[in-house]
Amino acid sequence: QVQLVQSGAEVKKPGASVKVSCKASGYTFPSYGISWVRQAPGQGLEWMGWISTYNGNTNYAQKVQGRVTMTTDTSTSTAYMELRSLRSDDTAVYYCARLGGGGSYFDYWGQGALVTVSS
Amino acid sequence: EIVLTQSPGTLSLSPGERATLSCRASQSVSSSHLAWYQQKPGQAPRLLIYGASSRATGMPDRFSGSGSGTDFTLTISRLEPEDFAVYYCQHYGRAFGGGTKVEIK
């Protein structure tokens, strides 16, 4: 069965960086893109960007452009999201999600990784 | 950039009642690219509807989606206790609406 398993919770200081991983299993990794979505406490869902697991092409949301880098390692079927220059308002649960339907929707989600930014 | 506006923000209903949730796009979008998700507290979102009206695998038939252009609707015909959650619409794997919370009245 399809699974996306993310790395664990992190606590970071303002200005630091965090790298969250998302290990996929149960399907052919290069056949489906991966997106990253975050959710601040008590808030809605925010799309952060997308990476093609086939060729590494990326597209980032304007809000995090310049601070985020999404990568993949096809040898381990793992996607990564690195966010730099962390601020307190980056505190959120970060989800990876598989793109289905030719990129139209997210058919599988990771369990989420809480990133807390605090001095 | 497409902006999705969901209404109402909160819907207070009793089990067995019908729920009607709205998602309005800032410009016309293809219904093929409109999806709905359900999120329960402490859980990741789950795909509910894709292509505006197709139910995801395993989702009960009391959930239905409709609409086209700029106006889309998610209907829950008879609310079950497990349906009380937050629902989000999304366009083309990117922009999300702000969500509608369906709470027990």
Summed up, what is this model?
The complex is a heterodimer of chains A (119) and B (105). With 119 residues, chain A is mainly β. Chain A has strands at residues 3-6, 10-12, 18-25, 34-39, 46-51, 58-60, 68-73, 78-83, 92-100, 105-109, 113-117.
Q: What does this molecule look like?
A:
The complex is a heterodimer of chains A (119) and B (105). Chain A is mainly β. In chain A, 0% of the residues lie in helices and 51% in strands. Chain A has no helices and eleven strands. Chain A has strands spanning 3-6, 10-12, 18-25, 34-39, 46-51, 58-60, 68-73, 78-83, 92-100, 105-109, 113-117. In chain A, the strands form two sheets. In chain A, strands 2, 4, 5, 6, 9, 10 and 11 form a seven-stranded mixed sheet that branches. Chain A has a four-stranded antiparallel sheet with strand order 1-3-8-7, with no helix packed on it. The radius of gyration of chain A is 13 Å and the shape is globular. The mean pLDDT of chain A is 97. By secondary structure, chain B is an all-beta fold. Chain B contains no helices and nine strands. In chain B, the strands form two sheets. In chain B, strands 2-9-8-4-5-6 form a six-stranded mixed sheet, with no helix packed on it. In chain B, strands 1-3-7 form a three-stranded antiparallel sheet, with no helix packed on it. At the A-B interface, strand 5, strand 9 and strand 10 of A face strand 4 and strand 5 of B.
